[in-house]
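Hi,

I'm pasting everything inline rather than attaching a file, because the server keeps stripping attachments. The sequence lines come first, and each chain or strand is labelled.
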Amino acid sequence: MNTILNPEQNTWNELTQRPTQSFQDIELTVSAIFKEIQQKGDKAVAKYTSIFDGITLENNQVTQQEITEAEQQLSDELKEAIQTAKKNIERFHAAQKTAKVAVETLPGINCWQEKKPISKVGLYIPGGSAPLFSTVLMLAAPAKLAGCQEIILCTPPNKEGKINPAILFAAQLCGITQIQKIGGIQAIAAMTFGTESVPKVYKIFGPGNQFVTVAKQVATQYGVAIDMPAGPSELLVVADETSNPAFIASDLLSQAEHGADSQVILVTTSQEVLKQTESEIEKQLAVLPRKTIAEQAIAQSRLIYFDSEQKALDFINEYAPEHFIIAAQNEEFYINGIQNAGSVFVGSYTPESAGDYTSGTNHTLPTNGYARNYSGVNLDSFLKAITFQKISPKGLQTIGNTIEIMAEAEGLQAHKNAVTIRLKTLENENI
Amino acid sequence: MNTILNPEQNTWNELTQRPTQSFQDIELTVSAIFKEIQQKGDKAVAKYTSIFDGITLENNQVTQQEITEAEQQLSDELKEAIQTAKKNIERFHAAQKTAKVAVETLPGINCWQEKKPISKVGLYIPGGSAPLFSTVLMLAAPAKLAGCQEIILCTPPNKEGKINPAILFAAQLCGITQIQKIGGIQAIAAMTFGTESVPKVYKIFGPGNQFVTVAKQVATQYGVAIDMPAGPSELLVVADETSNPAFIASDLLSQAEHGADSQVILVTTSQEVLKQTESEIEKQLAVLPRKTIAEQAIAQSRLIYFDSEQKALDFINEYAPEHFIIAAQNEEFYINGIQNAGSVFVGSYTPESAGDYTSGTNHTLPTNGYARNYSGVNLDSFLKAITFQKISPKGLQTIGNTIEIMAEAEGLQAHKNAVTIRLKTLENENI
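And the predicted assembly:
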């Protein structure tokens, strides 16, 4: 752990840096696999599933029977927990629905904006040590609410060619159209181009390792949109002398167990709480199953003391954390002042894991400082806004000359003509 | 002009293709200039301004005196037109403001979403033959409404080191923070990294030629967001036997004059209107000042007849036009059915140029089929959504077990601990 006391503002740039990731070597590999899948479709997908997942599959698509079996394998309490989480996520995301925006900007000039679903979306759920069925809920529930017609889920099979039953249960519950046993680069490429068995999609969502991250970036070169650029997960806790060091330590560790590259930061206006948190971390870390992973992240962590809340807030806004826990008493100060964050957890009884699973907010959030310019996944991520305008003959007579003057000044005569020809017609018809 | 009658659905994929653009040669040039500007700042900017714009500038920043002089050079009628357009754009974009979304997902679990401005944004306005002061309004007015603190505008100087006065007037009117005489790749790179005189921004907006397009893509590799991927502008008009061929021709030509690579498409259920439009285009084209440009676009244009409105609509949704004019009588059918379009113009008296300048809708729109997965620029483009949650002790007692079960099932023990430690504290305190 690195303790820093009252850092001067000219050191903040360095303190807000995330570990640099170089994707250039990977990009060549990714691009080559993309080209192969573009040309050879399912055959190439099968080849890479065999190489990367160590299994040869006859058929990538999960069958109804597999889904039914998965449901039988889960405990009732886990199924109930997943259902509770889904309901909360739906409640919060349904409330984000916006009404049609309609304005008569001038008499006879009616403008409106309507949102329409992105018809085909692809969701990627990583495999590996943690079966992220919670991410299935976070992506599929809003996609369904938004009205996306085709929702394709790709996730890698294990060595037996199976998918974790909780992932299948959550996917089925959310109304996923198709579940494909495809992982990594080959999954993103398959959804980008479409293959004989996987539909092409217009937007791809979901977390993943560095290969998936680069694959999503490469996908954007082929016309696919992505939810956001991804990086290692991160948490910043702000605390004062009233905060509970054991709670803070538990939150920092819940972030640290995600991966050795997780970012864990404590910002505090109390040197006492800083020291106590440090020793609490050591105590709690000792008994964690994922201790080895968490230890590495904690070794890189920063515990930063500031002598004023304003400086603390300024630093936090410069850092732009993915997850931001307000464990300080002065909650309103931080709530009102925060400008750059993915999701904010207010008060001592709001651990990050509440938002990770069940409070209702989305856990797919901007990392690596992207909270300065990106939203986390929300209902609008699955929609696009279309604008409309309808101008009456009277409306065009009111505004026509303004258009003609501006088009003329931009040297665009045909733009002007499109108005002039209509105004003349109205004049001839005595309207 | 290419006339196609009742194309079979298996030919639609080809018919909806845009001209392929290969950016790979350009990308090397762009990346090299980015690296130089990252290292050498203003000195490198000056070098490329000298190479590409043929002028050596002492100072890139536009002075207050230049702005005052610009205002004096413009006619009153143009200034008034610009002000009218700005007011309409403001009215429509102000109406897009969303209220805070707040939901108690379960008793004691309060979730809310608030939007905050992206604090630093960069706007790019191309130089060249058409001085796009209208684009200044389209980008700067919503940026100001959204509350962006720093709004930087870059636009290339002419050979005398000047900026078109209408661009300066519009920029001043909208409250741009800083206007820089920098164009092309060097402008995008300067705003990506920041230089001694140009601030680094978090999101870059605006149109440009292929160099600017690639530069914006490269900028995203350095943590900057962009409005959307850009391509040549495009218009699709749908018409039936009641439509006015002269109006349609004027609209298609207003699109065609943008550039030789502009996409111009007529979809119609009337072969008669198709033929009449064809001859109207020839008639109107002959007298256009930008005839040479428009002619090339028109040569590539497609006039497509369908024998049913449903087929026409399906094709239009597959094409996903940037601009879509409904010149057919059955307006409601197309309004309700359109799923993929940037901006829609309804009825015979709503030419595209109305939306380009003054109706109030934005003219920065998704091209190249991106209307399937991207919105045009709107108020939200300058904001990001942050979610918040606050859980009461009672709320955590209600939901805590659900979180514990899910965290355990994902194998994330520290996530579970963050809840368990709090529940135990509450138990010990008899709450």
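Chain B has a mean pLDDT of 95.

If the labels don't parse on your end, tell me and I'll reformat.
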